[in-house]
Amino acid sequence: MGASGSKPDRAVQDLPDDEHYFGLENFGNTCYCNSVLQTLYFCRPFRERVLAYGARLQAAAAASKQQLPENMLTCLAELFLQVSGQKRKCGYISPRRFVGRVKSDNALFSSYMHQDAHEFLNWLLNEISEVLEKEERAAQAAKRRSSREGSRSSSRSSSRAASPTKQARSTTKAAAGGGGGGGGSSGGGGMHARSPSLQMLSQAAAKAAAHHNRPVRTWVHDLFQGKLVNETRCLQCETVTSREEDFYDLSLEIDQNCSLTSCLRNFSSTETLDAEDKFHCDKCGCLQEAQKRMRLAQLPPVLCLHLKRFKYIESMGRLKKLMHRVTFPWELKMINTTDDCPDADSAYELFAVVVHMGAHPNHGHYVALVRTPSGQWVCFDDEQVNAVTESQVQSVFGHTQDWHPMREDQQGPHADHGYILMYQRVQQQAGSGAAAATTGRAAAVAAAAAAASGQPPPAAQQHLQF
């Protein structure tokens, strides 16, 4: 844990002046929150939208001279504005109001127990999305009310504008229609024809309900949400059943001495459903053996990958941290996409890593490694901010052999592991970026070769020092 009075690393002071590097105070167990906040702040498109939201709130509050209601997004915007508005380049601030809101909105995070950073990230993105959805629905409802009131006002104006002669003609026609044989019945029918029927009212109500329940897409979805296709093929009739699922992140199983690419390949590997796991085929009308796989149908601009380092061991009756070595590249190309996936050839660049330090799921510490726009890596360890090298980032791949600590709360260089990997889509331009792409691919190849040989590259032998 960083001391509140500590000074930022001198190397951070030398970084470009167009960025702010501020640590966050830890309130006992909030390193999980601080590490996620730092990765989101250095996710440029996310930060820009949060700051724009905060600026609009400030303008609205100034115009109305009233304090606006507080929610998770308003607290996040206030925190981001506080960081971006600092005159100094380095330092630390206290996210007290934000953390207080987190604890009041979710009882899970109100205790002083060790929390899970991945769980918090998912919850936070969903909370922000819900706030934006509610605001959009309220705006749409206000717009519909305004439209209806405008229509009624226009209708009343038209009625007042009708001439006495025209009104008399209408009255005469109505009287004439009611005077003939069966005219009374005919006239009544005309009145009912002009009134909304029960069926029309029912249809209008159903349409309004459907409109209200229609999913609202927010900028959180635009940035983080991708789409999976779950394909199941019946081995009897060969019918393929597809089901789409949305995701904010991909949770990947890991093995010792593996690469991120192999984890992604295993994620989309074909699984056979047989014995007690048979698939009910609608065409066959019964349980059948089948094969299923998951593929990516739509890739998000910001790709969040969660390495499943915490596994429940039935014989132990509890969770255990997997100390496996998992290499991850600076640049990533997705391999498990559908044939019609847009941007399937897109390249992603690593910009943040949430690191879990410790030997047990219920103990330890979280820090964030983020890549600045200038290409420098910085470690945010609560209040402390330090520049780190690429080789130090590689040290969180893990060790080639599983480390078995003497105590569950023991920490050490072999207990530091990448837990959440954040990649951002690279906007490739014709005639540029080729060298960077080549360098990224070379790093990926080197990392994969090292994993295959079981030997870490020399650079990876340096460890993070906190």
From TrEMBL:
Keywords: Hydrolase, Protease, Thiol protease, Ubl conjugation pathway. Residues 176-191 have a biased composition (Gly residues). Residues 164-173 have a biased composition (Polar residues). GO terms for molecular function: cysteine-type deubiquitinase activity. It is an enzyme of class 3 (hydrolase). Its EC number is 3.4.19.12. One of its GO terms (cellular component) is cytosol. Pfam families: UCH (PF00443). It catalyses: Thiol-dependent hydrolysis of ester, thioester, amide, peptide and isopeptide bonds formed by the C-terminal Gly of ubiquitin (a 76-residue protein attached to proteins as an intracellular targeting signal). Residues 22-426 form the USP domain. Residues 139-195 are annotated as: Disordered. Residues 152-163 have a biased composition (Low complexity). The keyword Amino-acid biosynthesis does not apply. GO terms for biological process: protein deubiquitination; proteolysis. InterPro entries: Papain-like_cys_pep_sf (IPR038765), Peptidase_C19 (IPR050164), Peptidase_C19_UCH (IPR001394), USP (IPR028889), USP_CS (IPR018200). Belongs to the peptidase C19 family. Recognizes and hydrolyzes the peptide bond at the C-terminal Gly of ubiquitin. Involved in the processing of poly-ubiquitin precursors as well as that of ubiquitinated proteins. PANTHER family: RE52890P, UBIQUITIN CARBOXYL-TERMINAL HYDROLASE. This is Ubiquitin carboxyl-terminal hydrolase.
